UniProtKB/TrEMBL annotation:
This is Heptaprenyl diphosphate synthase. Keywords: Coiled coil. It comes from the Bacteria. Residues 120-147 form a coiled coil. The lineage of its organism: Bacteria, Bacillati, Bacillota, Bacilli, Bacillales. GO terms for biological process: menaquinone biosynthetic process. Pfam families: HEPPP_synt_1 (PF07307).
């Protein structure tokens, strides 16, 4: 079986298992099946295969990572659910998030990976701490670009770093690969968020605010959070070329991951990392239409 077919076979098995674990007759009436995060699937598979774990452990631990990841993402949707006139939607989001992420306790204990339970519990705590810190900065632009990226990389990468620390401890090459891959993924998410056109605290807006004049900053602070970008804000993005800025940062990280991958000893590992780089880069192929006109 080819590398690509083997990879797709594992992904399909893990996807089916995750959805089976998430299935609950009552919650299913209100919570649609999630679209599983392919970045976390790819990196988890690469790390676990590099650690030379048996296939059954690979599938189990990928399932655990995805259950926790999506459980935490459901919690992020609580604010959206609160806009619903029925309080039931908010309550169900809380319940669903707890239900999905708590499944990892049972799976790890059942298969003898008890030592990993505490490590993942600490990872969840660190992710929630990072989300709380990000929320603290939502009302102003006092957060620096560097600080914002550290917070975002913890939110998106803590589970993967925990997996690496457990099964590939003291391996500086894999630490660098995960770090740069997570940073590239965060920048991809930032770019996609920029294209959605809402005024929120994100890297592009922090960068733009840092470059802006006093008058431009005053206007930025007056715009309500969540509002769609108006023509004035769009003109600022054109002026400061925020899309190109994100692209350069992301491309630099992808190239670093590609260079690091050449050190790996197996074609399978190199191929998997190439897939990750392609997955991230695809989102950046079409430049933001109004940004490149300036």
């Amino acid at each position: 079986m080819s590398i690509e077919k083997t990879e797709n076979y594992i992904f399909q098995r893990v996807r089916e298992r995750v959805l089976r674990e998430m299935n609950h007759p009552y919650l299913a009436r209100f919570q649609p099946n999630p679209k599983l995060d392919m970045f976390h699937m790819h990196i988890s598979l690469i790390l676990l295969q590099a650690a030379e774990l048996p296939s059954e452990d690979v599938e189990l631990l990928m399932t655990v990572v995805l259950l926790i990841h999506h459980g935490l993402r459901v919690h992020d949707d609580i604010l959206l659910a609160s806009a619903q006139p029925d309080e039931r939607y908010r309550q169900l989001n809380v319940l669903a998030g707890d239900y999905f992420s708590s499944k990892y306790f049972h799976l790890l204990a059942q298969d003898g990976h008890v030592y990993a339970i505490g490590r993942f519990a600490r990872a969840i705590s660190r992710i929630n701490e990072a989300k709380a810190e990000r929320e603290k900065y939502m009302r102003d632009f006092s957060c620096t670009e560097e600080r914002y990226m550290r917070i975002s990389e913890r939110i998106h990468g803590e589970l993967l770093h925990t997996l690496r620390e457990i099964y590939l401890p003291n391996d500086s090459l894999w630490e660098d690969i995960v770090s740069f891959a997570v940073r590239a993924y965060v920048l991809k998410e930032e770019y996609m968020g920029l294209k959605q056109g809402n005024w929120v605290l994100n890297l592009a807006n922090i960068y733009m605010y840092d470059q802006a004049s006093t008058e431009e900053r005053r206007y930025m602070k007056s715009v309500p959070l969540g509002q769609m970008l108006d023509n004035r804000l769009l003109s600022y993005h054109v002026k400061y070329r925020t899309s190109s800025y994100l692209f350069r940062l992301m491309n630099s990280c992808v190239l670093t991951v590609e260079r690091l991958s050449t050190v790996l000893t197996t074609e399978t590992m190199r191929s998997h990392l190439q897939s990750v780089c392609q997955f991230i880069s695809q989102a950046m192929q079409n430049k933001w239409k109004f940004v490149e006109q300036g």
